[in-house]
Amino acid sequence: MATPDAAPDDSALYLIDAMSLAYRAHYIFISRPLINSKGQNTSAAYGFTNSLLKLIEDHSIEHAAVVFDEGEEDTFRKEIYEDYKAHRDPPPDELLENIPFIKEIVKALDITVLEVPGVEADDVIGTLATQAEDDGTEVVIVSPDKDFKQLLSDKVSIYKPAKGDQDFEIKTGETFREEYGLDPAQFVDMLALMGDSSDNVPGVYGIGEKTAQKLLREHHSVENLIEHADDLSGKRAREG
Q1: Structurally, what CATH architecture does the domain formed by 184-239 represent?
Q2: 20-55: b or e for each residue (b if 16 or more CB lie within 10 Å)?
């Protein structure tokens, strides 16, 4: 499991992706859901709370916010690309019924709850992380969502819930470069080339992850790649 060079200092801002953690918790218990005395499925609330308490217990957190989606079906991305996430099923009712409980728990722990109508939580987190980094503040994003990798830097890290326990796998700019051979800012271009099935975003025909990485190491960006398309080796890469 990756570890950072140094633990975040006490002034670090922790941005917690509520829905991703709630989804994860719900499906961890999908075969044996947790049911309370009223017959309600409380798997998401239980798992989310355990992860949050583990985070608080293991780290000196003074500044944190838990960010929720609000009106995701009307986000600007769907105005740009109507098939964005079109293949995804809506969240199960049992999960959605847990969200008010999770918000109450977060507020009871005196942690800020954030949600912006028409804006996905990851956009709120990305904006806050960038602003905080610009101000010189260290940022920890708590989420299993891979899209946050584009934000990794000397100031921004990701705590990803690990499989099978309540620990966190730590991602940094350094671990990203070791894994992909690219800078974190190139992650968006990598997804643009190879596509992103989780968001129903098509890529370039014939280009997978390894080819996308190779092209970006050579040409650095999609824009530069397009400018030098005639120089590419491989028919698929040229005609994709």
Answers
A1: Orthogonal Bundle (1.10)
A2: bbbbbbbebbeeeeeeeeeeebbbbbbbbbebbeeb
Helix (H) or strand (E) holding 147: none
Give the residue from 59, 49, 160, 60 showing the smallest Cα distance to 109.
49
d(CA 88, CA 73): 11
Kindly report the CATH class assigned to 13-180: alpha beta
The Cα 166–Cα 57 span in angstroms is 11
Domain extents in the chain: 13-180, 184-239
CA distance 23 to 163: 14
| 81-114: pLDDT as tens digits | 454 444 556 788 999 999 999 999 999 999 999 9
In a 13 Å sphere around the CA of 153, the CA atoms on its Cβ side amount to: 15
CA distances from 156 to 106, 111, 132, 179 (A): 23, 20, 9, 17
Q: How far is CA 126 from CA 2, 64, 201, 233, 237, in A?
A: 22, 14, 20, 36, 31
Domain 13-180 and domain 184-239 have a common topology: no
pTM here?
Answer: 0.84
